[in-house]
C-alpha cells in the first residue's frame, strides 16, 4: 500500500504549494473551478451528467495542447472520489501499466475504490501497448482517460476506440484565460491574493491575448511580473502594459508541424486561395510560418494548387510558382516573404479551373476495366508495316489521318479504344485562358 494513503485507501490530498509555480497551484480541482469546454461540462451536458452521476466509463480526450485535458481528468477523479494514476506514453510502457493495474486491483479489493488511469500522449503508444489496455478496461479494474493531440481515428487502434467515449476539447478562449488570471489575483491560499497587486486592464488583456489559449503561459508570466516588480510606497505591485510585454514577449502558437494543426492550417490556406480570398490566404500562410513551417512545404502546396485549382485557366501559374520558389532559394528569409506573398496573391487572384481532375476519372475507368486495345490505325506504323508484309494483312496505318494535312491541323478521327469511343471526361471550365482554347477547338471542329 502507498505510504501516503490512510486505511481507507485515500491518499493525503493536502497539496504542498511551497515552491510550486502559480500555474500549478491554480490548477482547478473541481468542476466549479474548471474553466472552458462548456460544450462538455456546461450545465446539462453529457460529460457533466456522467461526472455528477458518478458513472464514468473510459474516455479519450482529443484536443490541442493546453486545452485542459490533464486538468479535466484530474477533476473527474476528485469529483467521483477515485484514485488518480498518471502514465506518460512517451516515457512509460507496459511495465508501468502492470504496476498501476496491480495497485488498482489491491485498492478495489481493500476498499472498493475506483482507479482512473490517465495516459498522456496516448497516441505515442504502439498497437501492442494500446492492446495491453483492453483486458483491464474489460474487467473494470481501471477506468482509462487517454489524452491526445492527434486525431484519434488515425492514431488509436479500433478496439481501444470502441471501448471509449471520445470527447473533443477546444482551445481555451481569451475570456477563459482572463477568468483564470482574475482568480489567481484574488485567491489568497493558492494564488497571489496575499499580495497587493494592481494589474492595468491593458496589461491583463496582453497576458490573455499573448497566451494563445495557454493558461499556464499566462499565469507564469503574471507570476514573473508580480514577483519581479518593485512595490510602490504603499506596498502595491503595479503591473503596467510595458511590464506585461516584458513578461510574455512571444505569443503562444498552437501550430504543430507534425500534428493536426499542420493539416488544418494548410487546408485553410488552400481553401482560402481556392475561394479567391487574398487576405485569408496570406493570414493562414503567415500562421504556418510563425509556427515554424518549412517555406518549401508551402511552395509545394502552391505548386500543386497551380495545377489542381488554377489549372488551364492560367497555365502560366506553374511558371510563376517555380520562379518564385527559385527566387526564394536564392535569397532566403526574411526577404523570401515577398516571394511567398507574391505567389499566394497571384494564385488567389487567378482565374480558377479544376478540369485537370478528369485524369482521376480516367484512372478509375482503367482500374475497373483495365487498359483496352489501341485502335489499329493508332498503332506504331513500323509494326503495322511489318504485320502487313509478313502476315499479308492491310496496313492499318494507312487509315490514320495526319492532322497537319488538314485545315487548322484538325480532322475528325477516333482516338479512344472502340468500347470507349463515345466517352468524354474532360470538361472545359470556361474561365481564363482555358475558355479561349476551348472556344478555338470548338470553332475549328465546326461546333459553333
From TrEMBL:
<dbReference type="Pfam" id="PF16193">
    <property type="entry name" value="AAA_assoc_2"/>
</dbReference>
<dbReference type="InterPro" id="IPR003593">
    <property type="entry name" value="AAA+_ATPase"/>
</dbReference>
<keyword id="KW-0547">Nucleotide-binding</keyword>
<dbReference type="GO" id="GO:0008047">
    <property type="term" value="F:enzyme activator activity"/>
</dbReference>
<dbReference type="Pfam" id="PF00004">
    <property type="entry name" value="AAA"/>
</dbReference>
<keyword id="KW-0067">ATP-binding</keyword>
<feature type="domain" description="AAA+ ATPase">
    <location>
        <begin position="55"/>
        <end position="172"/>
    </location>
</feature>
<keyword id="KW-0235">DNA replication</keyword>
<dbReference type="Pfam" id="PF12002">
    <property type="entry name" value="MgsA_C"/>
</dbReference>
<feature type="compositionally biased region" description="Basic and acidic residues">
    <location>
        <begin position="7"/>
        <end position="17"/>
    </location>
</feature>
<comment type="similarity">
    <text>Belongs to the AAA ATPase family. RarA/MGS1/WRNIP1 subfamily.</text>
</comment>
<dbReference type="GO" id="GO:0003677">
    <property type="term" value="F:DNA binding"/>
</dbReference>
<dbReference type="InterPro" id="IPR021886">
    <property type="entry name" value="MgsA_C"/>
</dbReference>
<dbReference type="GO" id="GO:0005524">
    <property type="term" value="F:ATP binding"/>
</dbReference>
<dbReference type="InterPro" id="IPR027417">
    <property type="entry name" value="P-loop_NTPase"/>
</dbReference>
<dbReference type="InterPro" id="IPR008921">
    <property type="entry name" value="DNA_pol3_clamp-load_cplx_C"/>
</dbReference>
<dbReference type="InterPro" id="IPR051314">
    <property type="entry name" value="AAA_ATPase_RarA/MGS1/WRNIP1"/>
</dbReference>
<protein>
    <recommendedName>
        <fullName>Replication-associated recombination protein A</fullName>
    </recommendedName>
</protein>
<dbReference type="GO" id="GO:0017116">
    <property type="term" value="F:single-stranded DNA helicase activity"/>
</dbReference>
<dbReference type="GO" id="GO:0016887">
    <property type="term" value="F:ATP hydrolysis activity"/>
</dbReference>
<comment type="function">
    <text>DNA-dependent ATPase that plays important roles in cellular responses to stalled DNA replication processes.</text>
</comment>
<dbReference type="GO" id="GO:0006261">
    <property type="term" value="P:DNA-templated DNA replication"/>
</dbReference>
<dbReference type="GO" id="GO:0000731">
    <property type="term" value="P:DNA synthesis involved in DNA repair"/>
</dbReference>
<feature type="region of interest" description="Disordered">
    <location>
        <begin position="1"/>
        <end position="21"/>
    </location>
</feature>
<dbReference type="InterPro" id="IPR003959">
    <property type="entry name" value="ATPase_AAA_core"/>
</dbReference>
<dbReference type="InterPro" id="IPR032423">
    <property type="entry name" value="AAA_assoc_2"/>
</dbReference>
